Amino acid sequence: MKVLLVSDAGSIHTKRWASSLKDAGVDIVLFSITPADEGFYSQKDIRLYVFDLFSYKNRKGRGGKKKVIPLFAPLAAHADAVRLLKKVLQEEKPDILHAHYATSYGLVAALSGYHPFVLSVWGSDVYEFPEQSFVNRTAVKYMLGKADRVLSTSRAMAVRTSLYYKGDIGITPFGVDIARFRKELPAVADNRRIVFGTVKTLSQKYGIDLLIRAFARMRLIMSEKYGSEAPETVLEIAGKGPDRRTLGQLASDLGVAANVDFLGEVGHDSVPDLYSGMDVAVFLSRSESFGVSAVEAMSCSVPVIASDAAGFMEVLEDGAGVIVPCGDVESAAEAMARLATDAGERMSLAVKGRRRVEERYDWKKNVVTMIKEYGNVLLHKD
């Protein structure tokens, strides 16, 4: 079976899908509309075609000044991308064309007219992108309508997608390598120093400001209740983003700067070790379409506190973690204080979370699910 993926070659999500499907015996070809280092794909023996669709945004005029972008430039760029994709399709003759992300990736694939056409939604493409304009909503409906099969990472995201598409939607979770994301639980918990942590983009959407406020409030609760007997508490924040300076100032204003460690961007290969050093992972996103960060922490047997955003609610079903109301700093602080002093609950959540991941988010099983979806698409091919 040969599958041509239309996806961002630089995305870790694309790299994982492409390499894992290749390892599973699927002949993978990748078409990217954003530039990327070809080294990863050449090592995996995956043919990569690149068209820099958005290069028109960076064109310079005289004196090095940025050119005013003509209104037709985006249309012309998309048309050129479609022409190149058609040539690639004619040359490669894949059994399936599979686009990831219902924005320009999905649009270029849909406009190629190739079938069978599978489209995977990722999150912001059905939560945020359609809300930006009537044109975007129309484009999303067009892409989804052209697909022979629509896939979603989560049930929550599928519900959102159903606003723009009335057909059946398959669920293909984006899980974790449970052999890499794991740690051995200690025989005896250390309650003297508790490390809270998160791995998220530092932006308003992901509620890092709420986390810092909850951490400060939690320390106050602990001080009032336990005094000098309160455990030492630290907050580790991994990730980069536009709010880094503002968040650092917030930690300073709340008097917890000395206890908050901004780690910066952490490579994906280092994430398992980072989670393994945490006692509790906290994710207070204002919106979340899936919650892969929580899955990664749970796989490492780290108890999770998360907001009741749709994606987290699904991942933490059946008591696999602690859910708090979105935006409710006091509830988050109380949950953090409880877990900081209750080693038994931390251990129970660690076990439940790991079991949940093994059952539903084992990456090897997720790849098998995707291959089954491909098989069903080919089975029902006209």
Features:
382 residues, alpha/beta, Rossmann fold, 2 domains, six-stranded parallel beta sheet
Please write out the topology.
Elements: E1 2-6, H1 12-23, E2 27-32, H2 39-43, E3 47-50, H3 73-92, E4 96-100, H4 104-111, E5 117-121, H5 124-127, H6 134-146, E6 149-152, H7 155-161, E7 169-171, E8 193-199, H8 208-226, E9 232-238, H9 244-253, E10 260-264, H10 271-276, E11 280-283, H11 292-299, E12 304-307, H12 310-315, E13 322-324, H13 329-341, H14 343-360, H15 363-379
Parallel strand pairs: 1-2, 1-4, 2-3, 4-5, 5-6, 6-7, 8-9, 8-11, 9-10, 11-12, 12-13
Helix pairs in contact: 3-4, 4-6, 8-13, 11-14
Overview of this structure, please?
- With 382 residues, the chain is of the alpha/beta class.
- It has 2 domains: 2-175 and 363-379, Glycogen Phosphorylase B (Rossmann fold); 193-360, Rossmann fold (3-Layer(aba) Sandwich).
- Helix content is 43%, strand content 16%.
- The protein is built from 15 helices and 13 strands.
- The chain has helices at residues 12-23, 39-43, 73-92, 104-111, 124-127, 134-146, 155-161, 208-226, 244-253, 271-276, 292-299, 310-315, 329-341, 343-360, 363-379; strands spanning 2-6, 27-32, 47-50, 96-100, 117-121, 149-152, 169-171, 193-199, 232-238, 260-264, 280-283, 304-307, 322-324.
- The strands form 2 sheets. Strands 3-2-1-4-5-6-7 form a 7-stranded parallel β-sheet, sandwiched between helices. A 6-stranded parallel β-sheet has the order 10-9-8-11-12-13, sandwiched between helices.
- Strand 8 (193-199), helix 8 (208-226) and strand 9 form a beta-alpha-beta unit.
- Helix 4 packs across helix 6 (134-146).
- 44% of the residues are buried.
- The mean pLDDT is 91.
